[in-house]
Every structure is written in C-alpha cells, then in structure tokens.
Amino acid sequence: FSEVKPLALLPNLSNLTLHGNPIEERVYKEKKFYRNYIIHLLPGLHKLDFSGITKADRVDSATWAMFFRKKLAGKKQGDDDY
Fold first, then answer.
1. What is the pTM of this model?
2. CA-CA distance, 37 to 24, in Å (whole number)?
3. Burial of 37 by CB count in 10 Å (0-12 exposed, 13-18 middle, 19+ buried)?
4. Record's PANTHER family (predicted)?
C-alpha cells in the first residue's frame, strides 16, 4: 500500500480509480481488504473504482481499521498498546 499512502496528502481528492492500474492489481491480489483500506486512508473520497462509497462502506472501513489498528500504525501483531 505504500504507493497509495501519498494520496492521503490530497484533502480534496474525491474520486479515485485504481481499476486496471498496476497498483490496484498488485494491492487487490495481496490485500483482502483493499476497499476498506483505501476508504480508511482517504476519508474524503466519494467514489472508488467507479463505485460510490456508501455509509455502510464507511462503517465497514472504520470497523476494519479498529481491528487492524496496530498494523495501520506500523506495529507488529502482539505488541502492547502502551
């Protein structure tokens, strides 16, 4: 996901299409939760890969982010929160 992270610096980004892009192909194959990660990383998005982002998508993304918060923060599994 390192190729996508710099996009978080674009606060006005509202539509993103990675479909057909080598980034999408690699990330989608490697990461099961591609859509959740992108929505979490870019909360201002309205559309991702030609599909509108719904309230349910945002709830799923937030739930996913809470579950994987240590990985998102760069911590290893099993590290303590303190």
1. 0.74
2. 12
3. buried
4. LEUCINE-RICH REPEAT-CONTAINING PROTEIN 51 (PTHR46545)
Strand partners, 52: 47
Total residues found in the chain within this entry? 82
DSSP state of 51: E
Report the chain's terminal Cα–Cα distance, integer Å.
26
pLDDT digits (tens, 9 = 90+) for 11-49: 899 999 988 787 766 666 666 788 898 999 999 999 999
Q: Which amino acid is at 29?
A: K
Distances (CA, A) of 55 to 2, 4, 11, 27: 26, 22, 19, 23
